[in-house]
């Protein structure tokens, strides 16, 4: 079992603490939080060991799980890596691209592994169809959330949209060519609503919309590719796969047939992939343990987390143009 310590005991940190405590792949050594009152309350309520000194906690573990505010990600990760510890770091990887690139150099120098907490990669609905998403040429995403003061210290792009950026980059095998975006600050000092159009060199176009002042929650992505349409509802854990193939010469009474102006006939059919319920956060933590134990590349590497941050920051920069 890998010895693990958690930095940060806020809303998400407490979830990580509970899951790591339950996991058979980790031994939870304890946690550190600079808010002593909150830390002692968490320790008393749940029985986790509270370390008053972050360095002592890091020295006691194999893996440091960083669930702190984004502004402190780099310093926490740098300190852990320099102590030879593997790091799991919540998204976004860091506050700046320079910090993320510095971490990439540090993990290589010290021979440790890192994973970024882009949890939607472990969403059971997305897992069920990921292999079916092949060379999509148009992608549309909507990630809408009801207002929550937690997270408004960063633009909605880094708070919400970055989830969809990471998913898109994981299925589009092409460099980004151009980005156009707009953002509006409604309640916060940073944009609360954003729309971005990402054009890739292979011709794929992705249109992303995110809002954190919506009247309802929505997390949907749609992928359009040759002879297929794939819809993923990350919130409801549902998928819809519609495919087309050459129509048979003698279709059945209930076959759905379309014919275009050139006379080409296609048959529409539906696929229903099996969706296996899971705990996505537990899965991302445990597959990271597997990557460490088996010396393989984590599912969401620091490089991928850096790429998602790079695109997110380009979108934010596009607001100013």
Automatic annotation (TrEMBL):
GO terms for molecular function: nucleotide binding. It comes from the Bacteria. Signal peptide: none annotated. Residues 156-216 form the GFO/IDH/MocA-like oxidoreductase domain. Residues 2-118 form the Gfo/Idh/MocA-like oxidoreductase N-terminal domain. This is Putative dehydrogenase. It comes from Flagellimonas meridianipacifica.
């Amino acid at each position: 079992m890998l010895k693990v310590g958690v930095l940060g005991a806020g809303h998400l940190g407490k979830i990580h603490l509970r899951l790591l405590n339950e996991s058979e792949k980790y031994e939870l050594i304890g946690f550190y939080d600079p808010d002593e009152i909150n830390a002692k309350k968490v320790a008393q309520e749940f029985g986790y060991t509270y370390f008053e000194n972050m360095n002592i906690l890091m020295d006691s573990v194999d893996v440091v799980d960083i669930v702190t505010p984004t502004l402190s990600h780099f310093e926490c990760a740098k300190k852990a890596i320099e102590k030879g510890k593997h790091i799991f770091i919540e998204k976004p990887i860091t506050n700046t691209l320079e910090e993320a690139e510095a971490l990439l150099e540090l993990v290589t120098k010290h021979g440790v592994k890192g994973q970024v907490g882009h949890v939607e990669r472990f969403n059971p609905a997305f897992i069920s169809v990921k292999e079916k998403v092949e060379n999509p040429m148009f992608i549309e995403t909507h990630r809408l959330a009801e207002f929550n003061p937690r997270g408004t210290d960063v633009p909605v792009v880094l708070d919400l949209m970055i989830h969809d950026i990471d998913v898109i980059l994981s299925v589009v095998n092409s460099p980004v060519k151009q980005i156009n975006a707009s953002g509006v600050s409604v309640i916060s000092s940073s944009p609360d609503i954003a729309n971005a159009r990402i054009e890739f060199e292979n011709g794929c176009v992705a249109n992303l919309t995110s809002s954190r002042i919506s009247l309802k929650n929505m997390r949907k992505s749609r992928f359009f590719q040759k002879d297929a349409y794939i819809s993923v509802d990350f919130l409801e854990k549902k998928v819809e796969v519609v495919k087309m193939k050459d129509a048979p010469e003698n279709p059945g009474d209930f076959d759905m047939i379309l014919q275009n102006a050139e006379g080409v006939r296609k048959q529409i059919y539906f696929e229903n992939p099996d969706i296996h319920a899971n705990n996505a956060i537990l899965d991302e933590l445990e597959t990271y343990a597997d990557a460490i134990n088996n010396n393989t590349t984590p599912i969401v590497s620091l490089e991928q987390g850096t790429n998602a941050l790079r695109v997110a920051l380009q979108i934010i920069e596009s607001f100013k143009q």
